[in-house]
Write a structure and sequence with these properties.
By secondary structure, the protein is mainly alpha-helical. The chain has one domain. The protein is 88% helix and 0% strand. It contains three helices and no strands. α1 packs across α3. The longest helix is centred in the middle third of the chain and has 113 residues. The protein is rod-shaped and about 160 Å long.
Length: 164
């Protein structure tokens, strides 16, 4: 930043501050009071209509206005650069969001495939459980049949020994 820009910013920040307005208002009030009332010990150096005060305020406005304008122009340039940067950031963010959404869509597809595979596996497991239950029932039936045969064999074996 150049020296002129720094001076313009300093003048603009001073002229546009509450302390400056308050101090200037107090000076203007004192000027008007001292030049309006008839004090014995104070000579009225700028009687009403306060031409010297008007000249001083015009000088102040003419002197401060270019500094304020330079500061405003510099601030407008800064704002334009900030807006451009914001736009570039927004465009990049939009692209990133697009990539994220594409990635999420891909993940959604993968999750749907996983769910479908799990459903197929669940059906297979259900079928296997049904088959296992059938096998267990057949084994129960066979076990009962074998127990009956075993009982029959034992009975037959005990029957000849009783005859002897």
């Amino acid at each position: 930043m150049t020296i002129g820009a720094k001076v313009a910013d300093a003048v603009a920040s001073t002229v546009g501050s509450w302390p400056f307005i308050i101090v200037q208002s107090m000076i203007l009030a004192a000027w008007i009071i001292l030049n309006t009332l008839n004090f014995v010990f104070i000579h009225q150096w700028d009687p009403y209509p306060y031409i010297l005060l008007n000249l001083a305020l015009s000088f102040q406005a003419a002197y401060a206005a270019p500094f304020v304008m330079m500061s405003q122009n510099r601030q407008a340039t800064k704002d334009r650069l900030t807006a451009e940067n914001d736009y570039k950031t927004d465009v990049k963010s939009e692209q990133e969001i697009g990539h994220i959404l594409e990635h999420l869509d891909h993940q959604d597809g993968l999750i749907l495939q996983i769910v479908q595979r799990l459903e197929v596996q669940n059906k297979r497991i259900d079928e296997q459980e049904r088959l296992i239950l059938q096998i267990v029932q057949k084994m129960d039936t066979q076990q009962q049949f074998m127990e009956k045969q075993h009982q029959e064999i034992l009975r037959l074996l005990q029957t000849p020994s009783q005859e002897s």
